[in-house]
Predict the 3D structure of the following.
Amino acid sequence: MKNTILLTIILTILLAVIPCSAAVITVEPDGSGDEPTIQDAIDVAVTGDEVVLSIGTYTGDGNRDIDFGGRSITVRSTNPNDPNIVAVTIIDCESDPCEPHRGFTFESGEDANSIVSGLTVTNGFGPDEEFLYYIEWSVGGAIYCHSSSPTITNCTFGGNSASSGGGMCNWQNSSPTVTNCTFGGNSAGSGGGISNGGNSSPTITNCIFTSNSAVHDGGGMENYDNSSPTITNCTFGGNSGGAGGMYNYDSSPTVTNCTFVGNTANYSGGGICNIYSSSPTVTNCTFTDNSAEYNGGGMFNEGYSTVTNCTFVGNTANYSGGGICNYPTSSPAITNCTFGGNTASYGSGGGMYNMSSSSTITNCTFGGNSAGSGGGGMYNLGGSPTVTNCILWANSSEQVSCSGGSSPVITYNDIQGGWEGEGNINIDPHFVDPNGPDGVIGTEDDDLRLQPSSPCIDTGDPNQTPYVAALVIDEWHWAVVEPIQLNKLGINPATIVVYDWYGGIYDEGFDYDIINQGSATYLMLHIFGGAYPDFTTLDGLELFHVNYDYLINFDTDLDGNPRIVDGDYDGIAVVDMGAFEVQPDPIELLDILADDIIDLNLRRGIENSLLAKIDAAIAKLEDDNPKNDRAAVRLLRAFINAVKAQKGKKISANADDLIAAAQQIIDMLIGEEVESGGADRIRTPKRRMIRRLPPAKRR
């Protein structure tokens, strides 16, 4: 008897500690699965379970207005990664304004463990919910999130409607993760594709917003009431509304690597409209063929936008600002952008319009823009914009026009027809191909990079230096670093100074390392004398790294090449004008290195041996065969070894400079070495400025 009781206790304990495997609950369109409806399956599911929908169309009660009830489960198709399966696994809400239904409701605090994957939701009409100002309002045609943040992936939302958020509405601290989804043909009073409000900041990645419409704000998306989503690698195409692609009101989204094409604004902001203290950060985005009935074909700003490394091509506003319109109270920072073929049909500022705005425009290129009444490149009405290191050429009617007491600061620019101001020039910038293959300036195929003969090379503001970045190391120390030293080409330790939080310099020493993880590069600092782990045992990096991508905007051009390099080989690095920085050519640098060798007056045999290696490397690089780059690298390594062998002997001075110069050319050619079967694999060139000998020792 005692043995039986003991065995029972042991079995009970074992059953308690052995985890149960997640169940798969199937649902069929005809109700013949494990459970008759999707909601029935959810109601019996427990944490970790999967509700799997077979191919077909799901209709009626239990297959719409679906509520997870706070469960951490997954509802998915049979293969969420197959678009063909997703397209035929359909939740048809069969709703209209008289009988509203939506696909899913999340209002029980669901988090990222509540997952919807690989489904199509259509014909939803958002039921009324207590919404803004406690008014009953139709929200979320396909999905509604209230204080909940589920995961939505590989889904399609089409033909849904609501007063707010035709495809999805996120309200009151809802920040779902939305990945690889398509929002197409949804409609709403505002936020045709998605509406984010009430401090809701979803993460939206690899999504497509196409042909959505809104009566008022944001055909593709609206963000308001302190909602700042992170939007990456998304496409907004053919959306229409008061603002076409995206509308931001008192919100500051981060928009990266996105495309805005063919969106239409019934008012202003064909691509993006930013008003009422909105401060979005827009990076590496393209704005093409967007239009606005009034102002800002590509973008409209009333806030403090930061726009970097973007292209504005073929956008149109009927009135002002074909590319960008900056209205009063705005102070956008616009850097490394190109404006081509944008039009202000009846108004001013084909490329850009600044009205009582304190815009800062740096290293931008304006070409082929036009305006009906002035300022084909840029028009300033009042205000005091700052324009530096820009090129304005071949715009019509004028390159720059000012009125209304505008007092712009325009220096170090290349402006056709001339402009009074320090450092301004009036010389053809020598674009690589300003008309492009189609022969028309102001279209997508134009190449506005600079030829080696360009007068804009190294003629920007000579006082411009790389920004200084502060890096938090831990709760007691921080550092300042010149960001140009933080690119993937290396770091000069002399540019790093570590401080304690009282402002004193930490002089007990430090070390650093560069860590590559995927596409990101991190700088890690290690403080000597502190209780910190070794590099080899460090795990996580959260307290010890700075993301390279965070710094890239400060020291690179539109192509991602280092900014402020010696493009004219005079020994002094000065920023170029325009959006693109001309990079040193390895052959030119090898020629300079050869001159440096000659100027050292070495013994003839040593000089000839070194020059032979340089000449052979040049010959290899002049051949277009990529394999010859590898041969040139081998020759330069042989050069380095030869210099090292004579260091302190026949080459008593400048040996380290010669080695550094050759090594930096190697870095330009291979970017970084990757061990692959014992051989170096040549990667896309990562060019850098060569370290050069003092001018007094060069011919």
Notes: Helices lie at 2-17, 38-44, 83-87, 548-555, 586-599, 604-622, 627-646, 655-670. The mean pLDDT is 84. The CA atoms of residues 606 and 664 lie 22 Å apart.
